[in-house]
Specification:
6 strands; about 150 residues; 4-stranded antiparallel sheet; alpha+beta; rod-shaped; single chain
């Protein structure tokens, strides 16, 4: 015996409630997935690459600084000396710039290795105050350090 005008109403409401619950849970999961996809590129791929680039820039700056100190140590009183050295052509598949000279934020001279917004400042080890240095280069090709007792 049927009671009331809608005997199957409970079953219909249960089906609609299950569908709405499924849609709400799916929507929340999709939003979380989209947020995760946006953050994965930055946190899992770019940040470690930027750390590797910064460490590489620091190593390159230290190497150039060491080569400059070596030239300074054997520099003649009268005359000139030139040395060729090689640094990596690319770091993580892209080129970079090496600039030598005074940094605007400090009194000492330093080496700045940069690409885009990534920069590494390295102090010139021991000769920054006694000898003025200037110049720039890139990673590509052979690089030269020159010293002339009369100046350039």
């Amino acid at each position: 015996m049927r009671t009331g005008p809608y005997p199957n109403r409970l079953q219909n409401e249960s089906a609609v409630a299950n569908m709405i619950e499924y849609l709400m849970i799916s929507a929340v999961i999709m939003v979380l997935l989209i947020v995760m996809l946006l953050l994965v590129n930055t946190n899992i791929m770019e940040n470690p690459a930027n750390r590797v680039i910064y460490v590489s820039f620091t190593d390159i700056g230290n190497g150039v600084s060491t080569r400059m100190v070596d030239v300074y140590a054997i520099a003649p009183n009268d005359g000139d000396i030139t040395t060729h050295f090689n640094i990596p052509d690319e770091i993580v598949g892209r080129g970079y710039f090496v600039e030598l000279g005074a940094d605007t934020s400090s009194a000492d001279q330093d080496i700045t290795v940069s690409r885009g917004y990534l920069k590494a400042h390295i102090a010139i080890a021991g000769i920054g105050v006694t000898r003025g240095v200037s110049g720039n280069t890139t990673g590509a090709g052979m690089n030269i350090i020159s010293y002339d007792s009369e100046g350039f």
